[in-house]
Design goal:
The complex is a heterodimer of chains A (444) and B (269).
Chain A lengths: L4 E7 L11 E6 L4 E6 L3 H9 L8 E3 L2 E2 L2 H14 L3 E5 L5 H14 L2 E2 L8 H10 L6 H7 L2 E5 L3 H4 L3 H6 L15 E6 L11 E4 L5 H12 L8 H5 L3 H13 L2 E6 L1 H4 L4 H15 L4 E6 L6 H12 L5 E2 L6 E2 L6 H6 L5 E5 L3 H4 L2 H9 L2 E5 L4 H5 L2 E4 L9 E4 L5 E4 L10 H16 L11
Parallel strand pairs in A: 6-7, 6-15, 8-9, 8-11, 9-10, 11-12, 15-16, 16-17
Antiparallel strand pairs in A: 1-2, 2-3, 4-5, 4-17, 7-13, 13-14, 18-19
Chain B lengths: L2 E5 L7 E2 L5 H4 L4 H5 L2 E4 L2 E4 L4 E4 L5 E5 L5 E2 L9 E5 L14 E4 L15 E4 L22 E4 L15 E4 L15 E4 L15 E4 L10 E6 L2 H12 L6 H5 L2 E6 L7 E6 L2
Parallel strand pairs in B: 1-6, 2-7, 6-8, 8-9, 9-10, 10-11, 11-12, 12-13, 13-14, 14-17
Antiparallel strand pairs in B: 1-5, 2-3, 3-4, 15-16, 16-17
Classes of the chains: A alpha/beta (444), B mainly beta (269).
Iron/sulfur cluster (SF4) binds next to helix 1 of chain A.
């Protein structure tokens, strides 16, 4: 380790939606490495440790190294010429960069969509259809005495969710931590999160909707047939006991994950637990929150919502925003072959989308921004390598409970930020498309 | 003289052509129709850029070609007869109030969303959200008929308030979800979780189906009204057999998390 060491207090980890902002980082400025990340969980430590300064060209056009200026020009030309351009990704970058992506979508009259559409998009539809009774994680920590996780495995995906926000942490009205709380886990199998639960409900795969619907019926005092056990795998007596606890808790929270939103029923599954939460408010205070994955996917929802009115799957073809998941969401616009150009930011659809969508991505001009080379940057016509948010750039991200958190930079990167590249593309696109001259924030 | 539009250039990206509605074309001659605006992706184009137009000033319109990429056709249609000779894209007959649309091929998602009257007949399959409410809207189809001779996708009749949807083959999941009233006939198999959140209304299937735990079994009987409906569906060319007309049906009532005034009728032989 060199002598040029910097300590950063209260830095923020952006690896998962917990966005823990109590990191204590030791940075070796000579080596450009984070050597220690106190308070981070195993995932957070790996996240901080893996980032150094990579050795990639800053920009490529057609796989050949190019100047950033030329690449911006090429990108802007592609986007301005496209008749059905799509913008996708955005969950692993700052809100400041996301803002520019929305502006570009508006200028080029294209679609804008985020990774929400492949994780909690169904919840987005359900919020609109059913409504949301919500709280911050601070409130959960201080008040909640009944915690339910449905279709998620935070022990492995969000390791500090239990200790920092919801289970073992001690709060104002939960001074004894876990002893003051009842923890329920609903999942199709026992995961490493199960040991933390006081009650574990093993629901039959694909039967979450029936289970939530049965709970709603019981909360409303309706009769249920004991055959519910054959349908859901959970006995009527267990359900009745659970409903009793839910109705009689002081402050209940239902956290739901992709096990619920991405299985058969999708937005109706999310809608069912949101409706269950609403029903429970007849008896006590109950809230529901999705457990979000990527560091700033919640920010992407927020930025899109405040700028377009909708959280994902937005189209500007007519010059005003329209929302229609299934029509304007990226997997669909690609798989149907609608899109004729794509701008992908901080995401790698070429490695995780359905085959048909990837094939179409390979057939159209793609512009990709990422902190490393990925399958998407490899197939892109124009690719930019950018600095990592939260490590090389400051900015704002939203925690999974919609609380904005400021990032602190650990060390400088020679690569430009997403915000800088997107600002440059936006300026050029604006000139090409003749959009309204919006004053642009100067980027340092 | 009737109007015929033939697709001569396949759109590269989705084409939005809400102007292609008989009541709007009826006032125009050939040149007027060809000059109507359409949206090709994000570019303003005209009908003539994609279709050759034959005839004008008539309420009977035939469109020939694979229109799988053409959306919003016959938006707000109030009368006339539109025949689509081929497939059609999404949002066909959006909010239509009268007239008849016949599709000889398959239809995309959102057939007759929030329609108030008239009839849509699809000879092939139809996609998801047939006769549904748009996202963020509570009420779907408010009247009229949608007849599909093939299969339909998920969420048919979402938030439906009045009118009828009839399907010759199977329906997808959540058929009649959040239904307020109206009738849905599925001559094939009903998708999972049909009638979830239903307030009133009738869902009929000619096969047995799993119903949600929030539905309760009421009776097995022969509903008299059903015979009239089924005879009419047979007239419209749907495969209703003699046994279905006089048969007995299991009646499930629900959804108990809502008003509990809806019914699912399942053919029992
Ligand atoms: S819980 Fe998530 S945000 Fe917190 S340190 Fe671990 S990976 Fe980072």
């Amino acid at each position: 380790m060199g002598d040029n060491i910097k300590i950063i207090e209260n830095a923020t980890c952006t690896f998962c939606g917990c966005v823990c902002d109590d990191m204590h980082l030791t940075v070796d400025l000579d080596e450009k490495k984070i050597t220690k990340a106190k308070n981070a969980c195993v995932l957070g430590r790996a996240w901080f440790a893996q980032h150094g300064i990579p050795d990639y060209p800053q920009a490529t056009i057609g796989g050949k190294e190019a100047s950033v200026e030329d690449a911006v020009e090429e990108a802007a030309q592609i986007l301005a010429e496209a008749k059905f351009p799509i913008i996708y990704g955005l969950s692993d970058t700052t809100c400041e960069a996301q803002r520019h992506a929305v502006a570009i979508a508006d200028l080029i009259h294209g679609c804008i969509d985020t990774t929400t559409s492949v994780c909690h998009g169904p919840s987005g539809i359900a919020f609109q259809g059913v409504g949301e009774s919500t709280a911050t994680l601070g409130e959960v920590k201080n008040r909640a005495d009944f915690i339910m996780y449905w279709g998620g495995n935070p022990a492995e995906s969000h390791p500090r969710h239990f200790t920092r926000y919801a289970v073992t942490t001690k709060g104002l009205y939960t001074p004894n931590g876990k002893k003051d709380r009842t923890v329920v886990l609903v999942d199709v199998r026992k995961t490493p999160s199960a040991p933390v639960a006081d009650i574990f409900l093993s629901v039959k795969p694909g039967r979450d909707f029936e289970l939530a619907w049965a709970l709603r019926a019981l909360v409303k005092g309706r009769k249920l047939d004991p055959s519910i056990e054959q349908v859901t795998g959970v006995s009527l007596a267990t359900l009745e006991d659970l409903v009793d606890r839910m109705k009689n808790c002081r402050y209940g929270v239902l956290f739901f994950g992709m096990g619920l939103t991405m299985t058969r029923g999708r937005h109706f599954n999310s809608g069912a637990v949101l409706a269950l939460t609403t029903d429970l408010n007849e008896f006590t205070h109950f809230v529901a929150k999705p457990v979000r994955g990527h560091g700033n996917v919640t920010g992407a929802d927020n930025v899109l919502s405040w700028q377009t009115g909708y959280p994902f799957g937005v189209n500007f073809s007519r010059g005003f925003p329209r929302f229609n998941p299934g029509e304007f969401t990226t997997v669909d616009t690609l798989a149907r072959g609608d899109a004729d150009a794509a701008l992908i930011i901080a995401s790698d659809p070429a490695s995780n989308f359905p085959r048909k969508a990837i094939e179409h991505l390979g057939a159209i001009p793609v512009i990709a921004l990422d902190t490393k080379q990925t399958q998407t940057t490899n197939l892109a016509r124009v690719a930019f390598i950018t600095a990592t948010y939260g490590i090389n750039t400051a900015g704002t991200v939203y925690r999974m409970d919609d609380v904005p958190i400021t990032l602190r930079k650990a060390f400088d990167s020679p690569y430009p930020t997403d915000e800088e590249i997107l600002t440059a593309i936006r300026r050029r696109v604006q000139a090409l498309c003749g959009g309204p001259a919006v004053p642009l924030r100067k980027v340092s | 003289m009737s109007v015929t539009l033939t697709l001569h250039t396949q759109p590269e990206v989705p084409l939005e052509a809400e102007c292609l509605s008989p009541d709007r074309l009826a006032t125009l001659d050939q040149a007027g129709i060809a000059a109507l605006p359409v949206l090709h992706g994000n570019r303003n184009m005209t009908v003539g850029d994609f279709f050759s137009v034959d005839g004008g000033k008539d309420l009977t319109v035939r469109i020939i070609g694979d229109l799988g990429r053409v959306k919003h056709v016959a938006t707000g249609m109030s009368g006339g007869h539109l025949i689509i000779d081929g497939n059609i894209g999404s949002h066909l007959g959006l909010g239509m109030s009268g007239g008849e649309i016949t599709v000889t091929g398959h239809a995309g998602d959102w057939v007759g969303p929030e329609m108030g009257g008239g009839r849509i007949v699809v000879r092939g399959d139809a996609g998801h959200m047939v006769g549904s409410a748009y996202r963020g809207s509570k009420v779907g189809m408010r009247g009229g008929e949608i007849i599909v001779h093939g299969r339909i996708g998920n969420e048919a009749g979402n938030g439906m308030r009045r009118g009828m949807i009839a399907v010759a083959a199977d329906s997808g999941d959540f058929t009649g979800v959040n239904m307020i009233a109206g009738s849905i006939f599925v001559l094939g198999r009903l998708g999972a979780r049909s009638g979830a959140g239903m307030k009133r209304g009738t869902i009929v299937s000619l096969h047995d189906a799993e119903v949600l735990p929030t539905y309760s079994y009421a009776a097995c009987y022969h509903p008299v009204f059903l015979r009239h409906y089924l005879l009419r569906l047979r007239q419209l060319g749907l495969p209703v057999e003699e046994a279905h007309l006089g048969g007995r049906y299991r009646r499930w009532s629900g959804d108990s998390v809502e008003l509990n005034r809806g019914e699912i009728l399942l053919f029992a032989g």
